Amino acid sequence: MALCEIKWGSVADWVSGLGSFGAVAVALYLAGQDRRLNLKVTAQHSVLVSSVGTPPWPEYLSVRVTNHGRREARITGIGWRIGLFKKRFADQTPSYDDKVSTRMPCKLVDGEEAVFYFPLTEGAGWIKEFSTKVLDRPLWWSLLFAKVRIYTSVGVVFESRLASTLRSTIRARAKTRNAG
User: Fold this and answer.
1) String of DSSP letters for the chain
2) The domain that contains 147 carries what CATH number?
3) Domain-located, residue 77
4) Which pick of 11, 79, 121, 168 has the fewest CB atoms within 10 Å?
């Protein structure tokens, strides 16, 4: 028997070894998925219709955050990222005057949702400030690449593009405010 001779074993040994390795890899991957935060964020134009009161109904920018993961998430802030290459950042806090916004900071377990409302009515001065001090010119280009940001207590930031209806609403409100 030669010293350099290698015994590779049977094909069944190799297949069972590769199968065991694959099972361990999948188990570790799935275990890691349970520890990750998984939040879905949307920013859209909303109208709050109520059985109390009469039209016109109040209009809001609504930021919805839903926990799609198994790990509890703690939302600590809301912000904006504007721009494609030269990025600008801004933070925003809900006013809680509407009595329906979720209070911050808030905890979300699997399947729970938090909604934050920002008024889009004439009395809301934040749109003018947002469009003049945060958004760049041209306005449509800046809104195209604008993203809402959700900050968590563990330092993970989730971002989402603005819905097209919200982009057009902010653009229209900014034009009427700048014209007036």
Assistant:
1) --TT------HHHHHHHHHHHHHHHHHHHHHHHHHS--EEEEEEEEE---SSS-SSPPEEEEEEEEE-SSS-EEEEEEEEEE-SSS-EEEEE----TTS-SPPSSEEE-TT-EEEEEEE-STT-THHHHIIIIISPSSHHHHHHT-EEEEEETTS-EEEEEBPHHHHHHHHHHHHHHHH-
2) 2.60.40
3) yes
4) 11
Show the domain range for 59.
37-179
Query: In the predicted model, what is the mean pLDDT of residues 99-105?
Result: 86
Write the pLDDT tens digit of every residue in 8-25.
677 788 888 889 999 988
Give this prediction's pTM: 0.75
- Residue partners of 152: CB distance under 8 A and separation at least 6: 37, 39, 73, 74, 75, 76, 158
Q: What is the number of structural domains in the chain?
A: 1
